[in-house]
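Hey Z.,

So I finally got round to the NAP thing we talked about over coffee. Here's the setup:
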Amino acid sequence: MRAIAIDAYGGVDRLALRELPTPPVGPDTVLVRVRTAGVNPVDGKIREGHLAALMPSHFPLVPGWDAAGVVEAVGPAVAGFAVGDEVIGYVRRDDVQHGTYAELVPAPERCLADKPVQASWAEAGGLPLAGLTAYQALQLARTGAGDTVLVHGASGGVGHLAVQLARALGAGRVIGTASEANHDFVRSLGAEPVSYGDGLLDRVRAVVPDGVDVALDLFGGDALDVSAELLARPARLVSTADPEHVARLGGSYVFVKPSTADLGVLAGLVDAGRLTVHVARTFPLAEAAEAQRLVAAGHVRGKVVLEV
Ligand SMILES: NC(=O)c1ccc[n+]([C@@H]2O[C@H](COP(=O)([O-])OP(=O)(O)OC[C@H]3O[C@@H](n4cnc5c(N)ncnc54)[C@H](OP(=O)(O)O)[C@@H]3O)[C@@H](O)[C@H]2O)c1
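And the result:
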């Protein structure tokens, strides 16, 4: 099969299109023929070796944790999926080797759900990791009816889905931080935009003088300190960025987990027209290095997706 792989940790120039053997399919594993693979900031961190001490990793290493595709084969213990099913997956296995930047990926059953029918392949490939992160973070903060929610980085992959999910969970108001150029986009998602950077606390207070009920931080640093000032209960502060800092403030760190049930909720909201994945740009598989470079620059509106 064709895949993007690296033989050693390093820069984007290590990402090369290769011919690799078909990956092994375990008894409870689903082999997915990948149509699209979302590109996430973590893919670049893996390429640079930052997760090597946390998860067993093997070369040649195919990056990528997001996929949408069609079931090609199933192991004998797989009960929930059959050959030909259209699926989405947050394919985070316990080791790092067989990723989704490939024509075929072996996905543990717990990582998959049915593809939302209304989503294009590009939208479906960009949904799993960012959507699950947003959903699980909002659930951890017990986001519900009438809450005022602050989302830092509301125009990015996780943030633009978090704004919509907060509304779907019943939030009365959502404040979303973004650069000026993305304010109309953030407004279109259902949030009130505020520019990030120096003076953020005063700008948010000008919009919501009584503060917020829930805050979702994606960047750490000032975003966390400002959030703590605005929250009545620090336990409703959640961060994907800085475990120690958020713990010091009394909040929680999220590391997104594979979940068929949660993916099913997201797919249902997409099909109900209540959640839309904004695809900023697609790249062919062979241009994975360009795609990772764009994501690493940190200003993508929505998602970048590879077409395999
Ligand atoms: N722990 C986990 O499980 C987990 C899961 C997913 C993601 N993450 C982490 O969460 C972060 C966000 O992920 P993502 O996929 O949403 O990234 P992304 O799509 O690359 O985020 C890009 C967005 O970030 C905005 N941005 C840049 N600097 C900002 C700042 N200082 N304050 C507020 N917004 C800013 C940009 O807005 P403008 O263009 O308007 O500047 C852009 O829209 C990353 O660090 C990622 O590694 C962690």
